[in-house]
Write a structure and sequence with these properties.
Blueprint: H1 2-5, H2 12-47, H3 51-76, H4 85-100, H5 105-127, H6 132-151, E1 162-163, H7 182-204, H8 206-216, H9 218-223, H10 228-254, E2 256-257, H11 259-262, H12 265-278, H13 285-304, H14 311-326, H15 330-346
Antiparallel strand pairs: 1-2
Length: about 350
């Protein structure tokens, strides 16, 4: 307080108000991304209302949801996995098999998430003994094992896949047959918001701090008594739950699953690209990555038709390489640089 009194033009009252102003400013900055996120996704189905545009909106939500799940392990804990299609497929097949057995879709979604946890633990036990690119290669191998397992199970549809029986439109059945897809859009958005809130709670908990310590320096974290394997397992299990929910929702949306569309290596790479594209060091990175990924995919598909089928992969690869070389935190990192540059210019 004495320092404040010595400054001309600053009163003790102003000093008392300054912390409040700072806290209000911090709250505003923290709430701005949430406001922008909700404004975009809530307004989307009303602004872009054609069936094609509505489908893109649903895909943005699905991609944002599974990339958010991946980011728990890949961003928060720093473990780069290329096998997350396993959990996406677990959720999708739980949904399909449950529907064909007469199980309520919500129970199928919950069942898929529960099944994903022991599978994640079983996968994590051997792969977390490895580090770096050896760990990543091991996740690819485990993903391919589960892909081949499902591909060769005739009772699960094999390569032909499984269709999900249609039911009368209702939230209970999680089905709507109209041309407009806004019901799916808002259901997916609700699941995404729940996932983001869970990520926030996890990041602020002791588990989140331990995972960040593991990401920053695994050896140092271990020397301080952090059980590295245990917390990696927790991150993988939580990641698997969110990705499984995304798979269940996607299956219920398209009413069909097969190994190639939900469990292939392409899906694992796609999940990773979406998260990395937006930025893995922020919970908002997967959201930004999902929007950019969907729009870029559809632009190349429309612009080049069948002749440009692989061009989107070239573009994604090029973007990810540039980001890895110059801004590892993805698009959000680039935007942050521009914002900091603007502040310096104004000062």
């Amino acid at each position: 307080m004495s320092d404040v009194k010595s400054r001309p033009g600053v009163s003790p009252k102003g000093a008392a108000e300054a912390p409040g102003k700072r806290s209000a400013s911090a709250a505003l900055r923290a709430g701005a991304p949430w406001a922008a996120f909700l404004a975009f996704f809530v307004a989307y189905p009303f602004i872009w209302s054609t069936p094609f545009q509505q489908t893109l909106g649903v895909l943005m939500v699905v991609y944002a949801l599974y990339a958010t799940g991946w980011n728990i392990l890949g961003g928060m804990a720093g473990q780069i996995s290329l096998g997350h299609a396993t959990f996406f497929g677990v959720g999708a097949y739980a949904q399909a098999l449950g529907a064909r057995s007469g199980l309520n879709p919500w129970l199928s979604l919950l069942l898929g998430a529960l099944i994903a946890v022991p599978i994640a633990v079983a996968i994590g036990y051997p792969v977390f003994r490895l580090k770096g690119h050896y760990f990543t290669i091991a996740t690819i191998a485990t993903g391919e094992i589960f892909f081949l397992l499902v591909l060769n199970r005739a009772e699960w549809g094999g390569a032909d896949g499984l269709s999900i029986p249609t039911q009368p439109d209702s939230l209970t059945a999680m089905q709507w047959a109209g041309r407009q897809k806004w019901e799916y859009h808002f259901l997916g958005l609700a699941l995404l918001v729940l996932a983001l809130l869970a990520v926030v709670a996890m990041a602020r908990s002791r588990v989140g701090f331990y995972l960040q310590a593991i990401r920053n320096n695994q050896e140092a974290a271990s020397s301080l008594g952090v059980d590295i394997t245990r917390y990696k397992q927790i991150a993988l299990a939580c990641s698997a739950i969110v990705v499984s929910v995304a798979g269940s929702f996607f299956a219920q949306y398209v009413l069909f699953v097969d190994p190639f569309s939900v469990m292939s290596l392409d899906i694992s790479i796609q999940i990773t690209i979406v998260a990395v594209l937006g930025g893995v060091l922020s919970m908002w990175g997967p959201i930004v990555g999902a929007v950019v990924f969907v729009l870029l995919t559809e632009y190349t598909r429309i612009r080049f038709g069948g002749t440009g089928d692989a061009l989107n992969l070239v573009i994604y690869g090029g973007i990810v390489m540039l980001l890895a070389a110059f801004e590892p935190n993805g698009i959000l990192g680039v935007l942050g640089r521009f914002r900091r540059g603007g502040r310096k210019a104004r000062s």
